[in-house]
Amino acid sequence: xxxxxxxxxxxxxxxxxxxxxxxxxxxxxxxxxxxxxxxxxxxxxxxxxxxxxxxxxxxxxxxxxxxxxxxxxxxxxxxxxxxxxxxxxxxxxxxxxxxxxxxxxxxxxxxxxxxxxxxxxxxxxxxxxxxxxxxxxxxxxxxxxxxxxxxxxxxxxxxxxxxxxxxxxxxxxxxxxxxxxxxxxxxxxxxxxxxxxxxxxxxxxxxxxxxxxxxxxxxxxxxxxxxxxxxxxxxxxxxxxxxxxxxxxxxxxxxxxxxxxxxxxxxxxx
Length: 270
Known about the structure:
Layout: H1 3-8, E1 10-11, E2 16-17, E3 22-23, E4 28-29, E5 34-35, E6 40-41, E7 46-47, E8 52-53, E9 56-59, E10 64-65, E11 70-71, E12 86-89, E13 94-95, E14 100-101, E15 111-114, E16 119-120, E17 125-126, E18 131-132, E19 137-138, E20 143-144, E21 149-150, E22 155-156, E23 161-162, E24 167-168, E25 173-174, E26 179-180, E27 188-191, E28 196-200, H2 202-207, H3 212-226, H4 232-241, H5 247-257
Parallel strand pairs: 1-4, 2-5, 3-6, 4-7, 5-8, 6-9, 7-10, 8-11, 9-12, 10-13, 11-14, 12-15, 13-16, 14-17, 15-18, 16-19, 17-20, 18-21, 19-22, 20-23, 21-24, 22-25, 23-26, 25-27
Antiparallel strand pairs: 27-28
Helix pairs in contact: 3-4
């Protein structure tokens, strides 16, 4: 830490900032925080109190961290052997009380990455090697297992749990208390003890300015994908044989065609 950084940052005397930590100007570190020697806090970061930031962790500009948060501690993975891995958190995030986020592992690219403008509510957990996009919301006690990918503008309801290696698409929404075992398409809405696809996140799309035409085209594409006599792959092929009119529908098709270790979450068969 440079003297100039120290002089322009507010660090409570009860906090421990180890030598080697990079503390940018205008950082505020409240009482009883611990900041490890390999941590980087960028300009405007606020650690309110009783926050532990460890490992090779970077916290982006103006991210606000509330009490009793643990960031960058060793992954909860028995295969982890002490290798140097990272937790990179973007700008303008709000990380509320008791949130935990772990760095990556050798089995997942060595980096856990959080985008910008996210809200991580009380008790949320982001495990090793997760890749979380921008403007994501994890409600109270929502949890991501290792290697999960969450697209931008996705919302995970309270007490939801996402299985390892699952992908959550952009603008998707997961209902509270849902266990998500399969990939969730962009714009999809899933819910249930073992989550099933329940439609599209139309309300979220309207709030984000999608046009009526985009919504109508996506509804029509959704109906073709998830109903009919053909098997699922034939329905996908049928959509591909037609010209896809909207960016949103193309994003859904592209998501389905990507390699994944998980199946696509489907509607419930009633």
